[in-house]
Structure formats: structure tokens, C-alpha cells
Amino acid sequence: MVQTYNPKNKDIQIYIGDQLYHRDNAKISVFDSSVQGGDAVWEGLRVYNGRIFSLDRHLQRLQESAKAVAFTDIPTNETIKKAIFETLQANKMRDGVHIRMTLTRGEKYTSSMDPRVSEKGPCLIIIPEWKPPVFDKPLRLVTSHIRRNTPQFLDSKIHHNNLLNNILAKLSAIQAGVDAALMLDDNGFVSEVNATNIFMSKNGVLYTSHADSCLPGITRGLVLEIANELGIPNKEKNISLTEIYNADEVFTTGTMGELTNVSEIDGRIITNDSKKTVKDKIEANFYERIKTEGEELPF
To answer: Which of 40, 59, 138, 192 has the smallest number of CB atoms closer than 10 Å to its CB?
Structure first.
């Protein structure tokens, strides 16, 4: 699925450093660490009905990611919140908005891999867009030959900007003419989709992969919380391709696309032979949370 340009975003204001810029003038230095080596961390946020959903969870992950890669002078959560509020207010945005928030290590004084030459400190970038959930139909997946990173190489618990691993997997899906790529871990078990986490149900039990090579997503965590609250049996486990081909339900989770059904994997149609459904119950609770939870906008 290719996201289309929304004309409503023609004149959005984007926050960089400590200022707002029209999107046409929103630029960073070619010496910024994100340009030099993908040296940055990021979060995706959604705004529903005057509230930023799960903001504190996202900020905690941002702080932990920045600490893990040894950023210095990391802005506080209150500083970041103030910048987000300023950006949304300048754009008159209160609903139907997706935010891509990036924190780079900062501008370097010379082209180098060495983090010590980023002397100016981190640069905060906030891109707000009018953007509904990006998936409008069930997804068709293909298993990519590209394996998901494990902590041996690059820990997926760091929500970093070095996304070539995922982009190469996405190319597999594009070349196969489907929507997204299913990525396996280095042992051949299901890890995640190239941009989202993945769940399956079988006989009324909900399963998802261990958060070892996959990102421990915010929406993923919420789905597990909701399942526990609703009394739905659930388990993190090693999931083989054979198991997921024979699942009753498969769906993906993420801030960008919320909860999205998967209809096909590697040409195998997902058919609910048990007739037991768990995704609809979880999704109904998720949408109820959206109505009341989140950081309320001060304007």
C-alpha cells in the first residue's frame, strides 16, 4: 500500500531544534547525525479528539532509546511535550493527526562516525500530519529473506532510525506485489512485519512473538494488556510459519495502522476454521480507550 499525498498537509508547520518552519523550509544540516549515519531515535504518535494517545509510554521509550545509544543532554519529557503542544497548536490540530517525532544526536562539526564530534547536542524534529490509519483493507504478506535484527547485532528495543533492515524487507513485498513483508528471526521463527508487530489467534488463544528480535511496540503492549483485562488467554512464544499459516486470525499492530487484519501469507489464505474470534473484542476495547485516554492538549 502506497500512502497518498494529503493536500491538507501542504502548509504544515514543522518543529526543528527550537523553532517552527513551513514544510518547504523545514531542513536540517547535512552534518546532522541522522544524515551522517542514521544516528537518531524516533517515535510515532497519534492525536485523537484532543488527546495524544499513550504519550507517556512513547516518551519513556524515546528516553530509553536515547540513553541506550549514549546521547548527551537529552531533553526532558516536559520539554518535549511543550514542543509537541506548540507544534499542534500552530497547525490547529486536535484530531486525525499522526506525528513523527525524531531526536537526532545533533549536528557534527565535521563528517565523521565519531559521536564526539556532535557538539551542539540533540536536535528534536516534530512532523505532524493529517493522516488517518494507513491500512484500509486486510494485508497480504510475503515472507522476506531478510532476517530481523537480534540483540547480537542491533537491539530492536532501541527505536532507532537505522531502518535499512526493514526497508530491504519491504522491497521484498513490493517485488512480490503484496502489501508488507513478514520477517523471521535468525532461528526462522516469526518476528514481525516490516513496519508493525504481528499477532495470531488459534482456538480462542492469542499469540505473539517474543520481543527479542521484534520491537516491543506500544500498541503491541496495549493489546496484551487488553487481552489480560478481558480474560483472553494469551502467550508470547516462538511461532513457526506452519503455525501462522494455520492460524484462525492474524493481525498487525502499530501506531500508524492501529489493528489490521492479515488475509494472506505466502499465498496461504487465513481461514478461521474454529470460528472463534479475539481480534474484534480487543479492537473494540482499544477504540474505547482512544476516546478517554491520553495526554489532553492544553488548547
So the answer is: 138
246 belongs to a structural domain: yes
80, 101, 130: which is the final residue of a domain? Answer: 130
Cα separation, 100 vs 125, in Å, equals: 8
- Asked if residue 249 is part of any domain, the answer here is yes
Positive or negative, the Cα torsion across 137, 220, 190, 63?
positive
Given a contact cutoff of 8 angstroms between Cβ atoms, the answer to whether 218 and 54 are in contact is yes
Instruction: Name the grid cell of 263.
Output: 488475509
- Mean pLDDT across 196-202: 98
Reading the block at residue 74, the C-alpha cell is 537529552
State which amino acid sits at residue 243: E
In this structure, are residues 65 and 71 in contact, taking their beta carbons and an 8 Å threshold?
Answer: no
**What is the average pLDDT across 125-142?**
95
User: Do 155 and 285 sit in the same domain of this protein?
Assistant: yes
Claim to verify: residue 123 and residue 147 sit in the same structural domain: no
Asked if 16 and 125 touch (Cβ cutoff 8 Å), the reply is yes
Does residue 208 fall inside a structural domain?
yes
Task: Look at residue 217 and tell me whether its pLDDT is greater than 80.
Answer: yes
**Angle, CA 80 vertex, CA 75 and CA 82 arms, to 5°:** 130
Instruction: Please report the pLDDT score of residue 121 as a whole number.
Output: 95
pLDDT digits (tens, 9 = 90+) for 21-52: 999 999 999 999 999 999 999 999 999 999 99
120 and 154 assigned to the same domain: no
